[in-house]
């Protein structure tokens, strides 16, 4: 379980997260919605330990991310896919995927490599496994990014707007992979602007506004007229997003 | 005998003299190099045939060969070839000026390029003479552009002057050699000599930075 | 006034021996500079104030003191404290230390230019700091800075001529001997100038090729 309790985070005088409480259990797909600047990315970066908390506590399977020793354990349990892919430019797709399994999970090179090739194959990149990131399209790079995360066999997958740098066709490629992962029971924390897609794969949807978590509802209720939609802020956000 | 191996107060005067010789040669060759290098760049700008190609080749040769070898060529080679007498100081001035000119040339060329031929050509359309274009359009902008790389170059050229000690010019390094032989205290001698070079280099860098600031402020003010 | 390079013919084998010594010294010093440069660049970009400060002082000192002074410091100074090494070793050490200061600056800017997102991706995947440095920071920084490193190396080759002042008969040292044996200094040094210039030209060609090889993934694929 990922547990976020009373988390606060500010940059200078700007409070970006203002007392966030959130639980993500195994098997859930939780989508995080919210307008730009509401603090979604910051929340994800707090969970994977890239930002230090100013208050509150985050644990991943009971390992406290604010505790240096426990952070390493917490990080073994989650994996992150980034908006801008962040692939290692000097390594081929396979090398990108195998680096952490070999170095952190201490897998043998052959074992890690055959697992990586199988993963890449499963996302349609079997033939591009030995290409460098610069030789891949955006959609292909993000699929490598997903494989790199999955190779760590994470309990939780953190995804921060992973399709927002992609054109619609590539977005579809990537989302179809996520849909498949959701079906196989992968736990995901999914920051997105793709509302319709979030609706189809999420078990729960939370809504962030100005650093506060204003709604946390099962997907069905979130979109029901008497549920999340009853809040003007959310109705407004959804109608705006749908127009775009 | 022991007396001679210890430092005396006269050694300070020796060091000061050595530093003076280094600085004087540095300043003289910088000015000559600045002039010659800029002339080369101007010749290139006006695309003077043959001369341009020759200068480009010559500058490349100077930049890509050791200054020590250039010094030997001038000091030992020229007299043997042309049956003339060249003193160590003359050889030092010729070599260091030429070497500095080669690097100034590169900086000046890129400074002129940064201004752009278009701008210069359009100034001529307004009826300015070649000299006026040079004086009022190119020079101020080129100087503002070049001052940064120039400072780096000068810090480097100061260090290059130390090589003239090898052909017998009594500069700071040569004084270091003399004191080193007499006192047999290499660590102290070379630390002091190195320290003097270091401080001088820092002063040059500081002066360059100050000048750049003032030029920037000047151009900003003119732009209003 | 005569200019006749053919009188150098009998001395070519001797000069080649000197050139070989130059090549050896430069190759060793190149390796030394790279190792020092990497370590110092790592220290300078480290979060420890003391380490980065110490690294800065090293770079600042060795960049602002003439190489010949550094060389004499080691050549005359080391025996003073009981370290007796030959001129060749002294020269290689001095060249490596000076070259290390220049390379570290280049490598440091290569490190600072690395996209932080890439480093964050490495960090959250649980890689240790040393693995991140060895497997990600170092290779990316080295390959982006290969051209400026090439300039540092070319300078190293030119600077190696100064090793002749500590009795080492590398290329310039051998040429000095030939010049005084033949009484034809102009021919000897003119040829030497051309040889060095050609040598550095070859080095720059090799660097261009290495740059293209290391960055081959950014080129369009042939297949
Ligand atoms: N390192 C930082 N330094 C200063 N301010 C920051 C930093 N990171 C984020 N912020 C600020 O925090 C706020 C929340 O940013 P965050 O990236 O979490 O928003 P977001 O919800 O992910 O937005 P988007 O949908 O645009 O990605 C923004 O106002 C942003 O400017
Ligand atoms: Mg964001």
Strand content bin of chain B: under 5%
**Segments of chain C where pLDDT lies below 50 for 5+ residues?**
none
Extract low-pLDDT stretches of chain B. none
Give the chain pair forming the largest contact, with residue counts.
Answer: B-C, 42 and 42 residues
Main location (chain A): membrane
Keywords (chain A): Amino-acid transport, ATP-binding, Cell membrane, Membrane, Nucleotide-binding, Transport
GO molecular function, one term (chain A): ATP binding
Domain ABC transporter (chain A): 2-235
Structure characterization notes:
Chain A: Its main location: membrane. Chain A: One of its GO terms (molecular function) is ATP binding. Chain A: One of its GO terms (cellular component) is plasma membrane. Chain A: This is ABC transporter. Chain A: InterPro entries: AAA+_ATPase (IPR003593), ABC_ATPase_HisP-typ (IPR030679), ABC_transporter-like_ATP-bd (IPR003439), ABC_transporter-like_CS (IPR017871), MetN_ABC_transporter-like (IPR050086), P-loop_NTPase (IPR027417). The complex is a heterotrimer of chains A (244), B (224) and C (223). By secondary structure, chain A is an alpha/beta fold. Chain A has a domain at 2-86 and 157-241: P-loop containing nucleotide triphosphate hydrolases (Rossmann fold), CATH 3.40.50.300. Chain A is 39% helix and 25% strand. Chain A is globular, with a radius of gyration of 18 Å. Chain B has 224 residues and is mainly alpha-helical. Chain B has a single domain, classed as Orthogonal Bundle (MetI-like fold). Chain B has helices spanning 2-5, 10-45, 51-63, 67-82, 88-115, 117-125, 130-160, 172-183, 186-223. In chain B, α3 crosses α5 (88-115), α5 packs across α7 and α6 runs antiparallel to α7 (130-160). In chain B, 37% of the residues are buried. Chain C has a single domain, classed as MetI-like fold (Orthogonal Bundle), CATH 1.10.3720.10. Chains in contact: A-C, B-C. The interface between B and C is large, with 42 and 42 residues. The structure holds adenosine-5'-triphosphate and magnesium ion (MG). Magnesium ion (MG) binds at residues 40-41, 160-161 of chain A. Adenosine-5'-triphosphate binds at residues 11, 16, 34, 36-42, 161 of chain A.
